[in-house]
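Quick illustration for those who missed Monday's session on complexes.
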Amino acid sequence: MSNEEIFKKYIKKLYWLTTIFSSLFIVTGGLLVFYSVNPSFFNFKKETTVNTVSVEEDDYDKIENGIHVRTGLIEAEGLTAVVNNCTNCHSAKLVIQNRMNKERWNSTIRWMQETQNLWDLGKNQEIIVNYLITNYPPLEVGRRATLSNIDWYELNN
Ligand code: HEC
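Prediction with heme C bound:
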């Protein structure tokens, strides 16, 4: 191989190396510019997951016409505490259909704690019981309204 041939070979190599590095440089630069304009484009996978989760969560605790759709409970102060503590073991229907006063709710809760592994509710107990007696007050079934405006008369024997 003559000196000239070796020289040509090096020039050729240099030419390719330069071409490859320039291309890489341009592509990387382009990507960097693109990334700085629109960073979320590159983590599209992560973003779809985030979207799915937030949509599911929206539906999960959806309120429609004042009713918490998933459980059927009335939306009011204390709803979250009731949903989180009272719908894990049985349906919320069991809670809704039992209308009790404060004392009976507290003793039902105590009964569940003693026999059904219900946990200590802490300060949530008052919130839950208040929610229940406010939104599902005891029904006075079978009791007629007190009589009023009665014209009493004397019996004449
Ligand atoms: C650890 C599980 C568990 C949790 C949490 C729980 N319960 Fe219960 N509860 C039960 C079981 C078990 C029964 C009996 C179910 C049956 O008889 O079919 C029951 C029964 C009831 C009953 C019916 C009682 C009766 O006399 O028939 C009511 C009302 C009730 N629960 C309300 C609640 C409320 C309110 C909460 C939230 C503070 C709650 N439960 C949380 C386990 C639980």
